[in-house]
Amino acid sequence: MLPGRGRNGRATRAARILGTRTAWSAVGDGEFFCPGCGGDRNYQRLTGHRRFTLLGVPVLPRGESAPVVECAACRRHFGTDVLDHPTTTRFSAMLRDAVHTVALAVLAAGGTCARPSLETAAATVRAAGFDDCTEEQLSALVEALAADTGRVFSAPCGAGLAIELHEALDPLAPHLAATGRESILLSGARIALADGPYTPAERDALATVGAALTIRAEDVTRLLAAAARTPS
């Protein structure tokens, strides 16, 4: 059989004669975490209109294509759900704010803001990215929190503080591996244990942290017990 005379040859000729083409239009832009590049990149959000082509010339509309995100660096196209993933810069800020909120919640639950707890909390917050955080700043924030909400120190985690914890942790949890979520919980546990065993209010606050991080209650209990057995 001569080349181009078989079924594959006929399909190839047909594809050259008839086909489809998508014309893309930019409808937005911004910065995102590109899974192809593995880092923060600029992007364009594109909508597409498909057309049948005859000999490469668009002739008939064929409907709209699903919108895509095009990376400005690698030019690859991704589904728009890729924008749900925070950029590296945004993720770092979310993590920093989460650790700061957990530290304040545990200090407020502790009731006394003892120096060992304040020192541990300040070191933890600085390690998360607030380089200039001091014990005095944290103590003032806890006192301001109590004055603003009418919260009683060493009381169980109230609705207001629980809401703050969920606001800080809920958006972060889906983007953290299990070890990352546990690490945030354990950072709070170390603050609580710095001045002695957990108080009931501290356990309550840490349970709220664990719930916001989607850690199962039994795993929260296990992790807190393990932290209490670990020498400081």
From TrEMBL:
Transmembrane segments: none
Pfam families found in the cross-reference section: TerB
InterPro entries associated with the record: DjlA_N (IPR007791), TerB-like (IPR029024)
Co-chaperone DjlA N-terminal domain residues: 101-223
Protein name from the UniProt record: TerB family tellurite resistance protein
